[in-house]
Amino acid sequence: MLDASLKNALAFCQRVILVVGHRGEELQARYGSRPDIVVVHNPDYRLGLGSSIRCALAASDADYLFISHGDLPCIPREVYQQLWQARGCEALFPTWQGEAGHPVLLPKSLVRELAAAPVQSSVRRWLQGQPHRMVPVDSPAILFDVDTPARYQALLGGILENEREPTK
Q1: Which of 54, 97, 99, 115 has the fewest CB atoms within 10 Å of its CB?
Q2: Are strands 37-41 and 16-20 parallel, antiparallel or unpaired?
Q3: Distance (Å, rounded) from C-alpha 129 to C-alpha 114?
Q4: Upstream peptide bond of 94 is cis (omega within 30 degrees of 0)
Q5: Distance between CA 95 and CA 52 in Å, rounded?
Q6: Are 69 and 102 spatial neighbours (Cβ–Cβ below 8 Å)?
Q7: Which residues contact 17 (CB under 8 A, 6 or more apart)?
Q8: C-alpha distances in angstroms, 5 versus 55, 102, 168?
Q9: How far apart are CA 56 and CA 19, in angstroms?
Q10: More confident of the two residues 98 and 163
Q11: What is the pLDDT of residue 103?
Q12: With pLDDT > 70 as the criterion, what percentage of the chain qualifies?
């Protein structure tokens, strides 16, 4: 699943920062020799997603940064491209039928603000409290995180295009 997520991101992005925690050594061994993937260990991964995002922010010097999860294996290149074409000085959230998903595109100025802000219980909520825009995209895959056995079975069954279950 992570292979697919990385492949999709790399179809548009030149480099991916992969933040690892649990079983990080295995992921380092699998991806560490790839020049297009920078593996960053998050020693505080038990504190949640926000701590991993902070690790990614610290490892990036890019003008813009996409944030996504490894359990979203179906995001097409076109979603990254649409967000990139709409980039500006605010966070961009892709939406499908009005619901925000991933990846989120952040400009460097907002990356710096987030990195300097107090630790957040919800990075998404913090970002949505900052200047942001919703960008409608033509892909329900932005909402299809595979974080339960039922979602995994749905992925294997190929129902993504025909039916979308609500996200968490």
Answers
A1: 97
A2: parallel
A3: 11
A4: no
A5: 23
A6: yes
A7: 37, 38, 40, 56, 59, 60
A8: 19, 11, 19
A9: 6
A10: 98
A11: 97
A12: 94
Residue with tokens 């299809």: 144
Looking at every residue in the chain, the average pLDDT score rounds to: 89
Token duo for residue 20? 């690892």
Give CA–CA dist 101/143, Å, rounded. Answer: 5
Q: pLDDT tens-digit profile of 13-36?
A: 999 999 999 999 999 999 999 999
140 Cβ partners below 8 Å, 6+ apart? Answer: 96, 97, 160, 161, 164
Only one residue has tokens 């960008």, namely 135
Amino acid in position 18 = L
Phi and psi at 148, nearest 5°, equal -140, 160
As a whole number of angstroms, the distance between CA 143 and CA 47 comes to: 23
Total number of residues shown for the chain: 168
Number of H helices, E strands in the chain: 7, 7
CA distance 54 to 67: 11
Q: Where are the alpha helices (DSSP H) in the chain?
A: 2-10, 24-31, 49-59, 77-85, 108-116, 123-128, 149-157
The overall longest dimension of the chain from CA atoms, in Å, is 43
- Please provide the DSSP assignment of 13-36 as one string: -S-EEEEEBTBHHHHHHHHTT-TT
